[in-house]
Amino acid sequence: MTYLVDLFERKKRVQVDLEDDLSSESKRAARGDPHSRRAPRPCGMTIHTGVGCSYLCAYCYIYDMGFPAIPKPYPLEPKELVYSLSLNPYVVPERTLAAYGSVTEPLLPETSDRAIGYMREVWRWLKMPTQLSTKSILTNEIVSEILAGDPNANVLITVVTLSNRGLEPKAPDPLKRIEGAGEALKRGLKASLFIRPIIPGVTDREADKILASAADKGIETVVLGSLRVTERIIRKLERRGVKREEIERRLVKPLKGNEQIEVKSSDLKDKIRRMAESLGLKVFRAACEANNYHHGRYCAMCHLGPCNTDVKPEALEESAVRDLLEYLGVPYSDVDVGDEIVVYLKRRVDDGVRNLINTATYRRTMFVKPR
After folding, report:
1. Which secondary-structure segment (H or E) carries 293?
2. For every one of its 371 residues, what pLDDT tens digit does the chain have, with 9 covering 90 and above?
3. Whole-angstrom Cα distance, residue 220 to residue 211?
4. Which is nearest to 140 in space by CA: 198, 88, 179?
5. Distance between CA 200 and CA 264 in Å, rounded?
6. Residue 269: CA atoms inside 13 Å, Cβ hemisphere, count?
7. Which residues have a Cβ under 8 Å from the Cβ of 28 and sit 6 or more positions away?
8. Measured between alpha carbons, how far is 121 from 129 in angstroms, rounded to an integer?
9. Residue (of 140, 95, 106, 96) closest to 314 by Cα position
10. Read out DSSP for 297-333?
11. Which DSSP category does 363 fall into?
12. pTM for the full predicted model
């Protein structure tokens, strides 16, 4: 058995071990949970550590999705979550990135224990590279608990403004977030500055101070991200002092109720990137790039790649790829393995299989379909 096939066999072994360990009720809850079937996002598999958030940030879209302002921990216990992920056909152990948070703040008093438990157990059983985004302050206790799981866990510290506290009325002071990240770095945690979302007319005008504060505390890496708005969000931002026209002129399409519309910000990202690089900071275009960087991974599975080219790519043998194709039941006549993987199909297959090969190999896979 080659190492690529063993990744999938390892997931089966995890399933078997946990089936023996969990009760019937626990297995039923895990099987019915969306983590058992939901496809990963570009940043990885988003793992919900709770539901809802009490920080009430003006730019947050979870309230448009129906999530409450009163948070509660996610209902699955840590091992139940691992079992759920082991059932997910899209998840590949060691390869699929784990992104914690998403529809909550993972380090709230109500969700922190659940987040720590999830990170610890997912790493223990599936070795999915850990990334967590937070606006909370990293205490010594939290840092120790994170490092007790994945030792290369990447924590993204969100800061989008230093002056407009109305945009994040109940979140901790952003300078204290940065200070906490600096202390965490001294203890070995791989913390990055997360400037997301970039709010036009706000974040770009404060970016020099945000970046300088982060660099002063020893932060060396930055992730940039765009804003998405709904009709409710843009009204709330306007009430908090953001110029509506600055956002509306950048919308990729007209606003429509609760639909999340991206705000174009490539020029603002370039501006902030230049500022960051002038301070010696390394800038990532996406959260997944930061996660892979801090785990020492070269990645060439999407159009942004190759990423982290300072790292030597993992050797990829043609025989291992052929074994994987046969294991996955791909009807192919030939395969070329290089910077990309080209598979010549005998007949069409589901595109989800291509995504699995991408994830397992960290290479972009092309299917040449039969006529």
Report:
1. helix 287-294
2. 799 999 999 999 999 999 999 999 999 999 999 999 999 987 799 999 999 999 999 999 999 999 999 999 999 999 999 999 999 999 999 999 999 988 999 999 999 999 999 999 999 999 999 999 999 999 999 999 999 999 999 999 999 999 999 999 999 999 999 999 999 999 999 999 999 999 999 999 999 999 999 999 999 999 999 999 999 999 999 999 999 999 999 999 999 999 999 999 999 999 999 999 999 999 999 999 999 999 999 999 988 889 999 998 989 999 999 999 999 999 999 999 998 999 999 999 998 999 999 999 999 999 998 76
3. 10
4. 179
5. 9
6. 17
7. none
8. 12
9. 95
10. --BBSSTT-SB-TTSPPPP--HHHHHHHHHHTT--EE
11. B
12. 0.95
Cα gap 201→210, rounded to integer Å:
14
Residues 6+ apart with CB under 8 A from 198: 160, 204, 224, 225, 226, 227, 265, 268, 269, 272
Angle, helices 3-21/318-327, rounded to nearest 10 degrees = 40
Amino acid at 200: P
Residue bearing tokens 């230093």: 162
Whether residue 359 contacts residue 93, with contact meaning beta carbons closer than 8 Å, is answered with: no
What's the CA gap between 63 and 93, in Å, rounded? Answer: 32
Integer-rounded Cα radius of gyration of the chain = 21
> What tokens were used for 307?
């990423």
Domains of the chain: 39-76+89-114+123-294 (3.20.20.70), 298-371 (3.30.300)
Structure tokens at 256: 């429509």
Closest CA to 241 of 268, 206, 215: 206
Alpha-carbon distance of 121 to 112, in angstroms, equals 14
- H or E stretch including 13? helix 3-21
Tokens of 94: 């060691």
Q: Is 194 exposed, middle or buried (0-12, 13-18, 19+ CB in 10 A)?
A: buried
- Any idea which residue has 């990963």 for tokens? 40
